[in-house]
Amino acid sequence: MKKNIFPSIISQLILLVFVIVWILPTFGLFISSLRDKDLLANSGWWTSLITNEINEIYRTGKQESQFQQDNFYQIKGNFFNNVEGKKISSFGVTSKSINEYFVGEKAILKNGSEIIVFENGDYIWKSKEPFTNKNGKRIFITATSPPKFTLENYKEVLFKEGVGQAFINTLTVAIPSTLIPLIICSFFAYALSWMKFFGRDTLLAIIIASLVVPLQMSLIPLLSIYNDIGALFNIGAKSYPGVWMAHTGFGLASTTFLLRNFIKSLPHEMIEAARVDGANHYNIFTRIILPLSIPAFASIFILQFLWVWNDLLVGLVFLDQVPSEIILTAKLRELLGSRGENWEILTTGAFVSMTVPLAIFFLLQRYFIRGLVAGSVKG
Amino acid sequence: MIIFNLFFYVFAGILACVFYYHTANYLLDFFTKNSSKKIYNDSSIRAIIFIAPALVVLIIFIIYPVFETVRLSFFDKYGRDFVGINNYLWAFNDPEFRRCILNNLGWLLIVPTLSTFFGLVIANLADRIWWGTIAKSIIFMPMAISFVGAGVIWKFVYDYRGPGDEQIGLLNAIIVSFGLEPQAWITIPIWNNLFLMAIMIWIQTGLAMVIFSAALRSIPKEMLEAARIDGASEFKIFTSIIIPYLEQTILVIWTIITILVLKIFDIILAMTNGQWQTEVLANLMYDWMFRGGGDSGRGSVMAIIIMIGVIPIMAWNIHRHREEQKV
Known about the structure:
The complex is a heterodimer.
Chain A: H1 9-33, H2 37-42, E1 52-59, E2 67-69, E3 72-78, E4 87-92, E5 101-102, E6 106-108, E7 114-117, E8 122-127, E9 138-145, H3 152-160, H4 163-194, H5 200-210, H6 216-232, H7 240-264, H8 268-276, H9 281-292, H10 294-310, H11 313-318, H12 328-338, H13 343-363, H14 365-378
Antiparallel strand pairs in A: 1-9, 2-3, 3-8, 4-5, 4-9, 6-7, 7-8
Helix pairs in contact in A: 1-13, 3-13, 4-7, 4-10, 5-7, 7-10, 7-14, 10-14, 12-13
Chain B: H1 2-32, H2 39-42, H3 44-72, H4 86-93, H5 95-126, H6 132-140, H7 147-157, H8 170-177, H9 191-216, H10 221-229, H11 234-245, H12 247-262, H13 266-271, H14 281-290, H15 296-326
Helix pairs in contact in B: 1-3, 4-15, 5-6, 5-9, 5-12, 9-12, 14-15
């Protein structure tokens, strides 16, 4: 379709609304994961993006901290305990007029003493007479606090909550669960495309039927097989090899189907020429088909990898929910139950679980989309 | 140490695969080297070597379990005694199960429809706007993340604080800024289902959009230009040319999302675990796999109900494939 430099305003507005609705939730999660946990629990994430004006009440030092200098009794200090960031714009000494004075201005109190507050929170309170008040003077300040972000949540979530370990576990599940089906299915797809054997068409029909068989149909029988095998060898029923095989089984139909579509589309003259020259199917497969299939492999690898990475059900059923085996999605679900109100942990944990998919998405979007489109339009 | 284990596992798994194919083929070559028959080139033994691993996995993980699940649905909770259709009778008299059926039907009606519709509209708009590529990228992004991750993202959007407190959930903050009462969105029965469906629509619209985008490019430009020259409005072109042309694609997307929705599990488990009348089949099944030590009969019934929803799509897929093979 022709790209118009000046499309109708309405089209642009509608699309803009979609984009905003689609990006805001994720953006909010990301910003929240970078916020201080107390602030996160008490204010919306959108407030952290702008410099906020806040009104606060502080007390000066008590009479014990006074000292004498230049004929004045003085109390000195900093309201913010020298924490960087906040800037005072005005202050007041009574609750009726909380921004009576600008920073640096001298406020004269009723008893004749004078107080100066500076932008960074420093104050000096001077008096000719010794101070006798017990609690320090109340000072009302108006300050601006700039956006402030921290990586503290990430440190806590990765190392204290066990999300770092879950990240490694997920990798341990995902890489073999992607590569094993890719290897097995490429041979299978080749055989389905170019070898003649009894029952080939039936097998293809079974593959196409299996494409849509819900995972749920396999769970109960498989779980009992796994338990039997575990009991037979007196080992735990749930293990990494077990979950790889499960993912291989559940990804087999789609991987085979996509690869078959690709391999079938290669020019058959090429394969026949090689066979006339005396090459056997194994040589044809490894020397001709494999190198030509790299782009298709990339797409299918990404699809299967993301599927495994994002899976929850298989990880819950075929792995023990212990720190050495729990995967990210299961960990996140556990945190939703146990730390439901700790948004700093949930948002950060969720973002950690999204890093790999998002990296793949932004770096390899072309292959990802190609795989998805091949799997649907052709299918 | 952990990293070392990871590499070891990955390496061992892949090595085992490569070793099998290479050795099997090498042995076949070795034993047939001196045979002058045609067996060398067209060996059915080699076909067996090629398909055996995949076929074994397919039988163990898909074919056998499907029949076993059907069998178990007629047996008691331990899979020992035959109970006829008692599990099915129990299911249709169970209020929780009936609630699931209703909820799943709601999901099936709303999610595929809205995802497909939004996808089509966005694909159509984005192709005509100079920043359309960026827009498509943003709308597609939720496809990459997990349902649980999306659950956390939206749970944060729906977060609820009492009327006096400052709202940290985006939706309630917007509601409050209009002077309305904040709501605990995911605990309001019936309506909360819509808020959960919104998450799925948010994810699947990207899929629909990408596929439509590819399909839109296949519409002949001459046809669209001819319509424009004849004075057809953009809306008329959309309804009279684009939609009929994309009929097949719309059906394909519809079926893909329908299958996903039938199996919807992660979002429910993460957001409500079926409370406040949001239970769906897949989550109830997961529950029954472990509830009271596990009930394989009842769990199997639920799997079969999901399967029954899929069968028409399965038949259509096979039919379509046969048609393609004929051409």
